[in-house]
Design brief:
The chain has helices at 13-22, 29-39, 53-62, 127-131, 139-144, 181-192, 212-221, 236-242, 245-248, 251-265, 283-296, 318-330, 352-360; strands at residues 6-7, 63-64, 69-77, 80-86, 92-101, 107-112, 116-118, 133-136, 150-154, 160-164, 168-171, 204-208, 226-230, 270-275, 299-304, 335-337. The longest helix is centred in the middle third of the chain and has 15 residues, at 251-265. The strands form four sheets. It has a ten-stranded mixed β-sheet with strand order 3-4-5-6-11-12-13-14-15-16, covered by helices on one side. It has two domains: 6-64, Orthogonal Bundle (DNA polymerase, domain 1); 69-369, Aldolase class I (TIM Barrel, Alpha-Beta Barrel). The protein is an alpha/beta fold. Bound molecules: S-adenosyl-L-homocysteine. S-adenosyl-L-homocysteine binds at residues 121, 123, 125-126, 172, 176, 207-209, 230, 232, 272, 274, 303, 305-306, 308, 347-348, 350-351, 391.
Amino acid sequence: MPAGRIPFYALSREELASELAAAGFEKFRAKQVFDCVYSKKIFAPKAFPALPAKLAGFLGERFDFEPAKLVGDRKAGDETKKYLFALPDGNFVECVLLKAPAEDGKTRKTLCVSTQVGCACGCRFCASAMRGFVRNLTAGEIVAQALPFVERKILTSGRAEAKFEFENIVVMGMGEPLANFDNLSAALAVFNSPEKFGFGARRITVSTCGIADRLEKLAETGFPYRLAISLHGATDEVRSQIMPINKKYPLARLVAAAKKFSEKCGRMITLEYIMIENVNDSFAQARELAKIARTLHAHVNLIPYNRVESLPWRRSDAARRAAFAKILAEKGVSHTLRREKGSEIDAACGQLALKRKLEAGAGGGACGSAEAGETAKIPPETFFNCEKPCAGQSENGEQL
Ligand code: SAH
């Protein structure tokens, strides 16, 4: 963006009105602009209807409406599409749009967004971690991942409708959302605010590898969105082996923080548990997992591990996953056992990194892949090699 442009999506209507007034435009224009952007979902001032050309020109010069540019897309499965966005500094980020039939027969769509270029958490099984951390996404860059997905219709009443193609948002792409908290919060506020995109907080899920001190703070300040914790190990011995974050925040601290969070925020947490053969899939782990889930009154999502090339981990076989789930059932733990079939959603996006690295000859990323130094000219077929969509959905396409 040219120097000095103000990120548009972070602005309140009052702030926009002051900016307009300072430039000699009528304050009421702020309402018109908000209507164009947030109701009509038009994201380029030149295309705003019924606005004086001078004002449209000013808006385009003064504000940044496109902090990330869509430069490629690719179908990754029957019902999944991945999108590549170019960032102003030459990095790239990906998001995923997942479509799956829900139990009620309707099709539900979920957008999986990234919050960082790369990731610092270093989970051993995750392709994003192999890239290392590059930078946080700005709030605008997080919001921008949603902007291309608008459906426009003329209703029988004759009224024009512009709505997002997806019903749910999961923050499960590349990066650790709670490590980019201020920008995450600002972006989620844009999605959630009734005067902006108006997604109910229950339609937004944030997944964390378990930054316990942030969860403790959130328990104090409140957090309206759904929370998923990537547990993946039910004892310190097992979890530390695959998730270095566990050394900083061991399970006792994480579980205590999560308990405080769910009690104070009054919301059920989801525990994500990817099943990796001979690593975290013993029956002893299932019993420990059941204890944690019961302590937290949490729902457990058992996810088959999605293989990452060059990493040694493999998914537990279906029989083991079922036996593991049976133990949770016997202990009265609410859980979902994701299956592998067709377009069902059973894996994360982290595995993109390595394949991209191999095929594009550069470092990769996850559902939000981003390559410093890679250019937007790389042909689309080298993008999005993740066979499976992101982890943010249950098998019937519902948000976690
Ligand atoms: N940093 C956040 C969001 C990242 S990715 C977090 O850790 O929750 C979303 C989920 O995908 C996490 O649960 C992550 O552990 C999982 N994941 C990463 N690589 C995976 C793989 N190869 N197969 C299955 N799940 C994976």
